[in-house]
Structures are given as structure tokens and as C-alpha cells.
Amino acid sequence: MKGFGQKMDSNLIGIGFSLLAALGFGSSAVLVRPALSHISLPLGTFLSVLASLLFIGIIAALTDVSALLAVSRAALAWFAILGLLSFAMGRLFYYRGIQRLGVARAAPIVGATPLVAAVLAVLVYREAVSYLLALGVIAVVVGVVLILREQG
Amino acid sequence: MKGRLLPGYLFSAAAAFSYGTSQVISRTVVRDMASPLVTSAFSLIFGVLFLYLFLFPTLNRQIRQRNSRRGIILFMGSGVAAGVGVTSMYTGLKWAPVVVVSPVTAIHPLLAIGLSYFFLQHMERVTWRILLGALLVVGGVVMITLSQV
Q1: What is the largest CA-CA distance in chain B?
Q2: What is the DSSP string of B46-77?
Q3: What is residue A38's DSSP assignment?
Q4: How buried is B66 (Cβ within 10 angstroms: 0-12 exposed, 13-18 middle, 19+ buried)?
Q5: Measured between CB atoms, does A130 come within 8 Å of chain B?
Q6: Least confident of A17-21, A61-65, A121-125
Q7: Residue B98 burial by CB count (10 A; 0-12/13-18/19+): exposed, middle or buried?
Q8: Sign of the alpha-carbon torsion through B100, A7, B89, B18
Q9: Residues of chain B with pLDDT > 70: what percent?
């Protein structure tokens, strides 16, 4: 019974951090919209990625400095690809989407990222397609189509 | 769909594709090479370098201009908020399994819509169709996540 209680507590802490993560991602998009009235998109995107680097870099240095110094050359090549895809292209495109559509339309479309990841996982890793995955894909597609059909 | 909105949809879809591809790659990197936080830190270093290379002429000109302090604070705030999102998600994974953390984190588009409804009323229009579409996307993402754990 004590073990079950500890597991529940642990899950609740995990849920708390997950909610904080969702709030972080959500507010990040919301802050961009007014910022675009004051500063250009390229400079803003650069500053945003730089601020993320400072924040995460400090936390990584404080908590995992030995791991930071022990990365291999092969890993560096993968980090470069991830940096290009996620922080250079991904964030620049996302902010451009927010600039053109607003947060309310761009955020759900970009929020459909796991759909892309799932399709790629099926194609690249040959992962099986379950009923739940198929249902999820249909829900995401219908949701995005609803947003696309919104006029004005 | 109005033609003037099409580039915005294409940019958003391109962002989803970039993030999705990087998620698939980072699964292997995080499993075999480095911790999530180290991976994020180094990827961000390369992200800054690539952005500087891509936008070099524009950035150099804009950095020299007198830029709005408000704009700088808001954009840097956005970057810090995204950083809080990433570190909180990884911290959450230390306490609870993916099956708990990922679906909760996936609600971020709904929070973005809620926040923009309250704080960006003069800039954003949130309709029932957008809200329903976002609910379906989030529900679908939760199902996709649960199907993979």
C-alpha cells in the first residue's frame, strides 16, 4: 500500500512538471505574437533560440557538467542535424506561421508534430500501425482540416 | 481556405515536419549517445550557429539598428519559456512514465489558444471551429502517443 502511495505521489509530481512544460510551450508561442510588432522575425528568432540556449545551457552545466564534456564526435554530428531541424528551421518556420496565421491557428498545426513523428517511425523503423494510432491520425487530420477551413 | 493564409499554413506544416523529423532522430541519439538535456544544449548551440549563418546579412544589419527593448524582452521571454517547457518535460519523465507525461504535455496548443484568448484579444480571434479543431488535434496526439508506449 505504501509502494502504491509513493507511485501515486511520483506520478502527481510528474503530472505537475508536465503541466509546467505545456504552459512553457504554450506561453512561448503567445509571447511571439506581440513581439512581432516590435522587432523583425529573423532577429527575434535568433534571440529566442539564444535565450533557450542560455537557459538550458546553464541548467545542463549545473546538473550534468561531466556529461557535457564527454560527448563524442559522432554525437556532435547528430546534434548539428537536430539543431538545424529543430531550432533553426523548426522555430523559424513556427514563428513565421504565427506571424501569418496567429497563435490560435498555428499552435494546433505545429502541435500535430507527433503525427509526423509517428508516420516517419512507421516508414523508417517499420513500427506496427495499431487501431489507436490510426484513430489518432484520423483525429489529428480532421482537427487540422477544421482549422484550415476556418475563414477570416 | 483564403489564399493569403496559405503561406502561413505551409510554414506551420514545415515546422511540424522539422520538429517531427528531429523527434524521430533524437529518440536514437538520446537512447545511445547523450542525456536529453545534453542533447538539447548542444542542439541549441548548433541552432544558434545555423541561424546566424542563414540570416547573417539581415541579422548583422538588424543587430546594429536600435531595436525595441520590449520586442527583445518578449522574444527572449519566449525562448526562456520554451526552455522551461523542455526542462520541465524531461524532469517530469524522471518522476512519471512517458504514458503519463506525454499526453499532459501535448495539451500545449490548447493552453496557447486559452492564453491568446485572454491576453491577445485585440490580435487573435478564437472561434469554435478553431477550438474544436485544436481539441481534435490534441486528442489525436494523445492517442498517437499512447499507441507508441
Answers
A1: 50
A2: HHHHHHHHHTHHHHHHHHHS---HHHHHHHHH
A3: T
A4: exposed
A5: yes
A6: A121-125
A7: middle
A8: negative
A9: 97
Binding-face residues of A in 25-54 toward B, CB within 8 A: 25-35, 37-40, 42-54
Cell of B96: 512519471
In whole angstroms, what is the distance from residue A39 CA to residue B63 CA?
11
Which residues from chain A sit within 8 angstroms of residue B141, using beta carbons? 111-115, 136, 140
- As a three-state string, the secondary structure of A80-128 is HHHHHHHHHHHHHHHHHHHHHHCHHHHHHHHHCHHHHHHHHHHHHCCCC
ipTM: 0.90
Residues B37, A71 contacting (CB under 8 angstroms): no
Set of cell numbers at residue A69: 564534456
